[in-house]
Amino acid sequence: MTHTADRLARAAQESTRERTPWRVRLALHDIDGITLLVVPAVLFVLGLFVYPFLYGLVLSFKPRAGDFLANYRKFFSDPFLYDTIFATLRLALPATIINVLVSIPVALRVRKLHRRRLLTTILVIPITLGTVLIAEGLLNYLGPQGWLNRTLMLFGVISAPLRLVHNYTGVMISLILSGFPFTFLLTLSYITGIDASLEQAAATLGATARARFRHIVLPLLVQGLAVNFCLSFVQTFSVFPSAVLLGAPAGDTRVISIAAYQAAYEQYDASMAAAIAMIMGFVQLTVVVLALAGRNLFYRGAAGGGKG
Hints:
Blueprint: H1 2-19, H2 22-28, H3 33-36, H4 38-60, H5 70-77, H6 79-111, H7 116-123, H8 125-129, H9 131-142, H10 147-154, H11 168-192, H12 196-204, H13 209-237, H14 241-245, H15 256-266, H16 270-294
Helix pairs in contact: 4-16, 6-11, 6-13, 9-11, 11-13, 12-13, 13-16, 15-16
């Protein structure tokens, strides 16, 4: 009798489950239609980020010869390879810091302008040009026979052309020009999110502009600046066209992306290229973690007055 009763109970439960609509079943697990909208984004991330990352990670441990760590051992035993990390950091960190610092006063000024949209459009134009077009423009403008050198020599300011391209300076200028609009837009969005009444209240109490910035704006902005720094650094660390067109690919601007490119398309060693890409990602992740951890050193209070 007991077995018969159990079978009847299970049959009743299965019958009830079959009659229950899927929408009700998902709702019982706190899954509604809005939650399902996340599914395409999750599939997108899995297909275009997680899978390539895991594929590259596994491929990096399959070298042409030697054990599974042969690629990483080769990279860190060859100064021509591991020096690319420092060469890239020497470009990415200063360019990122300059862009973030310069974007603060520019964004503070633009926030108070009436024709903010027009000026913002002008400042973001370099984003639409792309790094290759910017590099070609700089070659024409700053090259030995460019407009700048010919103008300076015409007026007798210099006797020989200034060497502004095919070196560290050319790549740095390109990174600042191409990265500043992106950094500026992020900083402007954070600054416009700070409640202006806070500064007005401080001004009525006699606080100077410098004091208002130091004690009100900067603490509320530092969280956003940290995120801005991380995004800008990741962008500049992956520099490639500028380093090739405006730098010295075999000299002091031989960045890590060039080493990965040479391994993949000149030596046809996909495993070594994957290992370099993994090292590149690890360096980026290390700097990002340090930047996000360091932001708490400047301000730990509430950030309710800003978007950061």
